[in-house]
Design brief:
The protein is globular. The strands form two sheets. Strands 4, 5, 6, 7, 8, 9, 10, 11 and 12 form a nine-stranded mixed sheet that branches. A four-stranded antiparallel sheet has the order 3-2-1-13. α8 runs parallel beside α10. 48% of the residues are buried. It starts with a strand and ends in a 7-residue tail after the last strand. The protein has twelve helices and 13 strands. It is an alpha/beta fold and 373 residues long. The protein has two domains: 127 residues, 2-Layer Sandwich (Enolase-like, domain 1); 224 residues, Alpha-Beta Barrel (TIM Barrel), CATH 3.20.20. α6 links the parallel β6 and β7.
């Protein structure tokens, strides 16, 4: 288990705070002839629904020393199948810890077999890459437009703008006026409310209808699916859920209620890459759009997401921008984004192995767990 100390190139402002640093939790599984790497989506302080990195690290220690090594012992030293590592009914912290361990087990198995993750899914063609534009620290429209121009100048055709009450209609209007053909969606991170100033919140969101948005992401509190159903009845903009979708069971509940027209699916939050595959299939069967969401991953996690994004059911461009756009350093690297599209890695495993020098320079802590055979 390895903790990296990464830094974002530019702070990313959201309705729930500003992201500046990106400590990262990695898992490495050393097998005979191949190693596997897994990445956790856990952020330093967590989010309103996601556990902090420290809690995920503690859960990972328990998982490795308990069920993971139990599988190893019972299998005579063989690594467990990735599908056996995630308990879909587990807690949020256990799902996020298991997702990293599952990725590492998938990676080592694919490397040993000489197969890429994309090939194992039947994907591999280039997919559209989207990017996130935060609320500028100086809250100037000129700064926002400069940030948008950077992405569009690099060929990105879909952007997700962070909004909050007081930073919504005017910024979106300016971006739309400057880029009439750009695919736009907005992300409120649950900052609007029916219970406090509800009428004004609805009117604020309704004012966005003229800007031809693909969707508005997580407008209301994550735990209130009923309110999202009510809001959807009053808005012409499709509602997307993100933080509300904390598990496959929660996704099923949202789909059954009709609480969203689009789903932002984050593998680490759902319990791993296999859970994300189940999730997008459920969205497809429910005729609900979907895209792969991001947690400021390194090239490892982002390569996995790029391979997933080629699955039928992912209808919008995912958060697949190049990590070098937001991270000062990335040990794993990532395929080039060309004209707003990226092709997932074709080498065996999920992504190429990390650069040892960059990895060593970024590492803040390492803990080994020798297998008890």
């Amino acid at each position: 288990m390895r903790v990296l100390g990464l830094t974002l190139r530019t702070p990313v402002g959201t309705a729930r705070g500003t992201h500046r640093d990106r400590p990262l939790l990695l898992v490495r599984v050393v097998g005979d002839g191949a190693d596997g790497w897994g990445e956790s989506g856990a952020l330093a302080e967590g989010t309103s629904v996601d556990p902090p990195l420290s809690g995920v690290a503690d859960a990972l220690v328990e998982m490795v020393s308990g069920p993971f090594f139990a599988h190893v012992r019972s299998g005579g030293g063989a690594l467990p199948d990735a599908a056996s590592l995630t308990d879909r009914s587990a807690s949020a912290v256990q799902r996020m810890a298991a997702s990293a361990l599952e990725m590492a087990a998938l990676d080592v198995g694919l490397r040993a077999a000489g197969v890429s993750f994309a090939d194992s899914l039947g994907t591999g063609s280039p997919v559209q890459a989207g990017a996130v534009v935060g609320i500028p620290a100086d809250r100037r429209l000129s700064t926002l437009l400069r940030d948008v121009e950077k992405w569009t100048g690099d060929g990105y055709r879909r952007l997700r703008l962070k909004i909050e009450p007081g930073w919504d209609s005017e910024p979106v209007r300016e971006v739309r006026a400057a880029h009439p053909q750009l695919r736009l969606q907005v992300d409120a991170n649950g900052s609007y409310s029916f219970t406090q100033g509800g009428a004004s919140s609805v009117e604020r969101l309704r004012a966005l209808e003229e800007f031809e948005l693909d969707c508005i992401e997580q407008p209301l509190a994550p735990d209130d699916l009923v309110a999202h159903v009510r809001l959807a009845e009053q808005l012409a903009i499709p509602i997307c859920l993100d933080e509300s979708l904390t598990s496959l069971d929660r996704l099923d509940e949202a789909l059954t209620m009709g609480a969203c027209a689009v789903a932002c699916l984050k593998p680490s939050r759902l319990g791993g890459l296999l859970a994300a595959q189940h999730a997008v299939e459920r969205c497809r069967m429910a005729a609900v759009g979907a895209f792969v969401g991001g947690f400021f991953e390194t090239g490892l996690g982002r390569s996995a997401n790029a391979a997933l994004a080629g699955l039928e059911g992912f209808t919008l461009a995912g958060d697949l921008s190049h990590p070098s756009e937001y991270l000062e350093a990335d040990p794993f690297g990532y395929p080039a984004v060309v004209d707003g599209r990226v092709r997932p890695p074709t080498s065996p495993g999920i992504a190429p192995p990390p650069d040892p020098e960059i990895l060593a320079a970024c590492t803040r802590d390492v803990r080994w767990f020798p297998a008890p055979l």
